[in-house]
Design a protein that fits this description.
The chain is built from ten helices and 14 strands. With 309 residues, the chain is of the alpha/beta class. The chain has two domains: 3-141, Rossmann fold (3-Layer(aba) Sandwich); 144-308, L-2-Hydroxyisocaproate Dehydrogenase, Chain A, domain 2. The strands form four sheets. It has a six-stranded parallel sheet, with helices on both faces. The longest helix has 24 residues, at 285-308. The structure holds adenosine-5-diphosphoribose (APR). The site of adenosine-5-diphosphoribose has 25 residues, from helix 1 and helix 4.
């Protein structure tokens, strides 16, 4: 059985644990700084096993020692932006948390593959890679899958067709500067640019870019967790089963797309070794320009974090 650790037993972490257990992708360790929280949720999930028909073991802990020997570590630990808090405040707090978490991953699970979920995603994934000292292929973030899932949802709603036939591509940073790519987004192989008008596509792109905020506004407290945890589960499955699926993830670029020393959302081949290949799409001038400005925003974030240490 694979050992899959989830650090941060909050909304995304616990729901990911549920989805991973239901697919029996491995045994799960849930950990958090709040005492009792991971233990309680783990026990509840374990007791769901007989009812849902899974044998995955789920345990909860506050002790990093228990993550020893993990094959995969998913990091959702962090805080969400609260009213009155600037992005910089959030960046400072989550950077501190991610550094502490990463040091423990390096100590107790030195051979693991790490999937980051904590926001601001691209920057936190960079901090994780630098702090663990792991090869960049083993550290990547969940962003593009969620954004692509949202884009696919809106396209299916517009066309009145099944989401299953939609393959949506969203590149770039996870946030306002993400780059949905209509030209590469297809319905059973047909680009949506042939199926929908420019105006409609723009409306769907805008809704995708604001997808996270739309849910935050509805929920009032907290942010999305069903789709984020589903995206995490797909990524864990690709690694555990070595599927070599081509999925959009936040990956380290070393020259690809003309970028270096940065994490950015791009399509990759995901397998047992993590990011096994970065897939380079031939971008048109406007698409490249959008990706460039997204990369600039991420670079600025990384620079501000480097200035913190
Ligand atoms: N070590 C371990 N766990 C921590 C730490 C830490 N240093 N600091 C905070 N946590 C835990 C919290 O106790 C909480 O249980 O991380 C958990 C975060 O869960 P939620 O607040 O429910 O947040 P969630 O909705 O799961 O989102 C987690 O993913 O999508 C992103 O922006 C989102 O950064 C956020 C992250």
């Amino acid at each position: 059985m694979n050992k899959i650790t989830i650090i941060g037993a909050g909304a995304v972490g616990a729901t990911a644990a549920q989805r991973i257990a239901e697919k029996e992708l491995g045994d799960i360790v849930l950990t958090d700084i709040v005492e009792g929280l991971p233990q309680g949720k783990a026990l509840d999930l374990l007791e769901s096993g007989p009812l849902c028909g899974y044998d995955s073991k789920v345990t909860g802990t506050n002790d990093y020692k228990d993550i020893e020997g993990s094959d995969i570590v998913v990091v959702t630990a962090g805080i969400a932006r609260k009213p009155g808090m600037t992005r910089e405040d959030l960046l400072k707090i989550n950077t501190k948390i991610i550094k502490e978490v990463s040091q423990n991953i390096a100590k107790y699970a030195p051979d693991s593959i790490v999937i980051t979920v904590t926001n601001p995603l691209d920057i936190m994934t960079y901090v994780t890679m630098r702090t663990t000292g792991f090869e960049p292929q083993r550290v990547f973030g969940m962003s593009g899958m969620l954004d692509s899932g949202r884009f696919a949802t809106f396209i299916a709603m517009e066309l009145g067709c099944s989401v299953r036939d939609i393959s949506a591509v969203v590149l770039g940073g996870h946030g306002d500067t993400m780059v949905p790519l209509p030209r590469f987004t297809t319905v059973s192989g047909v680009p949506i640019t042939e199926l929908l008008s420019k105006d409609v596509i723009q409306r769907l792109v805008d809704r995708t870019v604001n997808g996270g905020a739309e849910i935050v506004n509805l929920l009032k407290t907290g942010s999305a967790f069903y789709a984020p945890s589903a995206a995490v589960t797909n990524m864990v499955e690709a690694v555990v089963k070595d599927t070599k699926r081509i999925l959009p993830v936040c990956a380290y670029l070393n020259g690809e797309y003309g970028k270096k020393n940065i994490y950015l959302g791009v399509p990759v081949k995901l397998g047992r070794r993590g990011v096994e290949e970065v897939i380079e799409l031939k971008l048109a001038a406007d698409e490249k320009k959008a990706l460039d400005s997204s990369a600039e925003a991420v670079k600025t974030g990384i620079a501000s974090v480097s200035a913190l240490s």
